[in-house]
Amino acid sequence: MRLRSAATRIGVVGLVLAGAAVPVAVAGAAVTLIPLLWVASATGLSGVMRAVLIIAALVLGLMTAILGAALGVFRDVRKRLPENRYGLCSGSSDMLPDRAGVLPLTDWLHDFFQNLAGSTPTDDPVTFGDLWGNGGDENAPRDIELVLMTTNVTRGISHRFPFLEGSWGQLYFDKGEFDALFPKSVVDWMVKHAAGIRHRDRLEVPEGFHPIPKPADLPILLGARTSLSFPVLLSAVPLYAANFERAPENGKYPLERCWFPMED
User: Fold this and answer.
1) What's this model's pTM, rounded to 2 decimal places?
2) How far apart are CA 131 and CA 159, in angstroms?
């Protein structure tokens, strides 16, 4: 089942990349196909020679189309994927559906969770504390215990969600980046409920960066999004943490971007 699932994902990504490279493939075919066909027509060739030239034009056109498509895919993987956080799509359009009335994946999940909780997408997002039903007390018994797993590729470690920060310290998010990945109501909630900055005197925290909320205030949408398994197809989620194993800059430790690429 896992092999079939992986093959399906790879196939979907391949089709999307190939579709995006169609213009480049057509241009590549045209570079050789049109001149050769023109030669076949302009020189007045007939019979076997004309047929041979047309077949050669078609073969070369096919080869240059394949080369053009390969170059187009390479360009997208090399340049455009990193620009879009290593995914073909962000997964969110701030709750704006497409022409068919379908929401992007992240927005659809948000709408689904909110409906289950009897809320609207513009209401406060459902949090882990809402599932606990214990007033946000992390040590009290919980009605529902939800734990998700994700992977921090930058540091090569797995994380549970809600996060157990361990020796890596406090985790941060960039509001500007999250605006492109999550609905506005979720981002606004996270900014409003951001935890206090610990060790402020030792860290360089840029403007617009905020600590993630405490576990009880974390939206379950963030946990679902970071644990989804659509690598390359869906943008990775960036979070930040100070790396105390590196030498500080100007007496303070900078934040290091950590990618959470939605792997099993």
Assistant:
1) 0.71
2) 20
